[in-house]
Structures are given as C-alpha cells and as structure tokens.
Amino acid sequence: MERIKSKTHPEQLIFSLLRIDDIRNTRTDLSPDEEYIQVSGRKMSAGFAVPPHRHTRLERNTDLTQEAWVILQGKVLATFYDLDDSFLCERVINPGDVVVFYRGGHALTVLEDDTIFYEFKSGPYFGLENDKVKIDG
Hints:
The chain has one helix at residues 128-131, and strands at 2-5, 13-18, 28-29, 40-41, 67-73, 76-81, 87-93, 98-101, 105-110, 116-121. By secondary structure, it is an all-beta fold. It has a domain at 1-22 and 65-122: Jelly Rolls (Sandwich), CATH 2.60.120. The strands form three sheets. The chain has a five-stranded antiparallel β-sheet, with no helix packed on it. The longest helix has 4 residues, at 128-131.
C-alpha cells in the first residue's frame, strides 16, 4: 500500500493506493480512522463469514468530499495535485487496484478502451457547480 502526503502540509494525507497484488488474508485499511471515507481490502477463502449486523446511527459532520475508484477493467492514469493545486505525482491504476482521494486535487486519463471502474464519494451531492473547482494543470 502507498500513502502520499502533501508536500506543502506534510501532515495531510492526499491519497492511498492499494494494488490488487498487495491484498493479503488480513484486512488492509487504506483509510486512517479519522478520514470520512473508509476503505479496506482483504483476500478471503471459502467459509469466511461476517455475522449478520447493521450499523448504528452516528452523527458525522464533514465539509470535505472524499472519493475512491476501483478499476475493474482497463487502465487509468491518475494525476494528483497538492493542497495548493501544484502537481504532486501520477500513478497508473490497474484492474483490481483501488485509490482513495482524501484531499487535494486529481484528474484521470483513460489509457485503454472499454475501461470500467467504480467511483465512490461521500455525500450528499449538491450539484457540479457546488462540488468542483477547476485546477489549471
């Protein structure tokens, strides 16, 4: 697993990346406990079970949208920007990989036809005009 922090504010986590080949039989938490979006990976064998349960209602307050992508097929080039909108780094995200965006900016370029991925975000969604700010990069 890779965790990249801000160059301008080194205490701030920008993104986590877990490659499918790095998933083990024990739970791997990509997200530190204090982040709003929680993502983990785990390889499981037949017979593994999670007992029936539901989650309790807890008030959670945030003014930050966090996001995760899971690549199912194809490849995506993810470009990451720091808190001051400066270029931070790039990573190719492959099938089975998951990347979690906590803060800073990002862009994607699809590298292969028929690329498919899931995208998850914290909500609720208030529309494009309220959700995004363009970065000149």
